[in-house]
């Protein structure tokens, strides 16, 4: 009797985990993806490694 309860509990946890994973996979389309872009400008004749411009 005790083995049946433990086996049923293990199966329940595995099924619940699989259902939660399927739910997470199917809802990926609703999340917005934000991409950061960086613009690099090459200037001839400058020896500086980096130029930081503050726009305030």
TrEMBL record:
This is Uncharacterized protein. It comes from Winogradskyella marincola.
């Amino acid at each position: 009797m005790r083995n049946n309860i433990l086996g049923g509990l293990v199966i329940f946890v595995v099924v619940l985990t699989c259902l939660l994973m399927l739910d997470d996979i199917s809802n990926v389309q609703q999340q917005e993806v934000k991409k950061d872009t960086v613009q690099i400008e090459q200037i001839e004749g400058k020896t500086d490694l980096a130029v930081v411009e503050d726009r305030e």
